[in-house]
Design brief:
The protein is mainly α. The protein folds into 2 domains: about 1-35, no CATH class; about 35-78, no CATH class. The chain is built from 3 helices and 2 strands. It has helices at about 1-15, 15-20, 40-60; strands at about 65, 70-75. Strands 1-2 form a two-stranded antiparallel ribbon.
């Protein structure tokens, strides 16, 4: 069920023409968002991972990095 829902969301997000407009809100995806800000260890793990990614991107001169199950993909606007 979760993987089916994830695929549905991914398909909708991949409709690039749709998201190039301000007329569509992401709330139409009906996402359930969990606030982890009070979740102790989880918050620390997410914050640490984000900091590591920022440092990694900065050192390589990238605008960002996309992490997939297989690898890291550098993202640069130039």
């Amino acid at each position: 069920m979760r993987s089916q829902r994830a695929e549905e969301i991914a398909r909708k997000l991949n409709e690039t023409e749709r998201w190039h407009s301000h007329g569509y809100g992401i709330n139409e995806l009906q996402l359930k968002i969990e606030d982890y800000s009070q979740a102790g260890e989880l918050k620390d793990a997410i914050t640490g991972y984000h900091s590591l990614f920022e440092d990694f991107s900065h050192k390589l001169g990238l605008d960002g990095v996309m992490h997939t199950a297989e690898n890291f993909i550098p993202v640069s606007r130039s």
